[in-house]
Amino acid sequence: MHRTAHLYAAIAAGGFRRYATYGTATAAGVFTNTVFGFIVAYTYIALWDERPGLGGYDQAQALTFVWVSQSLLAAGALIGGGFQEEIQERIRTGDIAVDLYRPADLQMWWLAADLGRAGFQLLGRGVVPLVAGALAFQLALPSAPGRWLLFLLSVLLGLVVSFALRFLLGLFAFWLLDGSGINMVATLVSIFFSGMLLPLTVFPGGFGEVVRMLPWSAMLQVPLDVLMGRHAGAGSAVRALGFQAAWAAVLLGAGRLLQSAATRKAVVQGG
Known about the structure:
There is one protein chain. The protein contains 11 helices and no strands. Helix content is 75%, strand content 0%. Helix 3 runs antiparallel to helix 6 and helix 7 (145-171) runs antiparallel to helix 10. The protein is mainly alpha-helical. It has helices at 2-20, 23-50, 59-76, 84-93, 96-100, 106-136, 145-171, 180-193, 205-211, 221-227, 234-270. It is globular, with a radius of gyration of 19 Å.
């Protein structure tokens, strides 16, 4: 057990170091996130001036939503990127056979590597945009350390949900000739249903209730609501984190089933 934990820790560290080498790409990403944050922030200001309290947020909370979202975009691979394209390419070339012979579970290997990547992106591309937003606007960031700890736990669960969805996308390449189409659709769905464009609380009626129950809301909407105290009570916080954990378990389980089916397919084709 200790040796297995050490192996996955080493894989995560390798994922962190791998992305840390891309200094120019990281700087470009920071610049893009910051500029886009200002564009969205001023759009939100105009919208909240016309509709105060929209979605249950005041303007400071809405702006907090903007800037914390920008700090999480790259880590959660909400607008593409991540590892699924690499898996799809390895399946297309047959290199996935090497992965299947590694002394580690395929899903856990990629999960550890992706968490390492996400850890770097949180630091490398997340801190500067959030600091820029906090300096330029009045944000509703909490001062209580406990709230920040809950937020970080919620972010971790959101990252696992994001990984689980993208792992499923990667494995679909065993049956699809080209994964670019499904990747594009998945990115559009993620942008809309995660709350990246607008908080999901602004959607009314039954539609709003449905989108808030989908797994994409666990990736961004829930962590932001935890940060801003919408799940301040112990019971509410447990329900919010439980919602994320439930989706993580369901999607990871689906990934295990699809991995098993894909492995059988690879063995049959490979002889």
